[in-house]
Design brief:
Layout lengths: L1 H33 L5 H6 L2 H16 L1
Length: 64
């Protein structure tokens, strides 16, 4: 029975991580458009590629 609960826990943790990353991408996009600094947790949950994209978009928005 504990293997079943461990598997359910893994699935739940994976889904929670995916939701957090999706929310971080959404807030980072809003930060670029809204000109505010996102919370630290947002940047820590972005993937490397998403972080690079965010920084490039932020720099481009600051140049305008």
């Amino acid at each position: 029975m504990s293997a079943t609960y461990a598997a359910l826990n893994r699935v739940a943790r994976k889904q929670a991580g995916e939701r957090q990353r999706a929310e971080a991408r959404r807030l980072a996009g809003l930060a670029v458009r809204g000109a505010y600094e996102p919370p630290r947790w947002v940047l820590s949950r972005l993937t490397h590629a998403d972080r690079m994209e965010y920084e490039a978009a932020r720099d481009e928005a600051r140049r305008r």
